[in-house]
Design goal:
This protein is mainly alpha-helical. The chain has five helices and no strands. It has one domain: Hemerythrin-like (Four Helix Bundle (Hemerythrin (Met), subunit A), Up-down Bundle), CATH 1.20.120.50. 68% of the residues lie in helices and 0% in strands. Helix 1 packs antiparallel against helix 2, helix 1 runs antiparallel to helix 4 and helix 3 runs antiparallel to helix 4. The model has no long low-confidence stretch (mean pLDDT 90). The structure holds fe (ii) ion (FE2) (2 copies).
Length: 135
């Protein structure tokens, strides 16, 4: 069962961005499933790496668009991205050291972050980026 369900409250209406957000939601769910099913350490570690790499890629897409289209709050938004990457790194390191409790609650932090960031911060750039070419 998916822990994190995509719904339209998360949609920005910018197709390229929404597709990337859906992929992030899917990776969080895959990680959650793997932890719940107590998959091998390598599998879980691999999913953490995949999630981090995809997050870095997604943030780079947004930050490039901010530059291309002159988004006024770009610097604040980028520092919020950086905080998430740091937290993700910390979580992956804890997991690798076996310090992370394998439970449904483990990923609550990630899910809350992704939801809150999309709904509160990403939505602020919609007026600037909507209808623009994002790649
Ligand atoms: Fe985003
Ligand atoms: Fe963002």
């Amino acid at each position: 069962m998916a822990l994190f369900i995509w719904d339209d409250s998360l949609a920005t209406g910018i197709e390229a961005i929404d597709n990337q957000h859906k992929k992030l939601v899917s990776l969080v769910n895959q990680l959650h499933d793997a932890m719940r099913e107590r998959k091998a350490k390598e599998v879980i570690g691999g999913l953490f790496t995949e999630l981090k790499d995809y997050t870095v890629y997604h943030f780079a897409t947004e930050e490039r668009a901010f530059k291309d289209y002159g988004y006024a709050a770009a610097a604040e938004h980028a520092s919020s991205h950086k905080r998430l990457i740091d937290s993700l790194d910390e979580l992956a390191q804890k997991e690798a050291r076996g310090e992370l409790a394998v439970s449904v609650d483990t990923l609550t932090f990630l899910i809350d972050w992704v939801k809150t960031h999309i709904m509160k911060e990403d939505k602020l750039y919609v007026p600037t980026l909507k209808g623009k070419h994002i790649a």
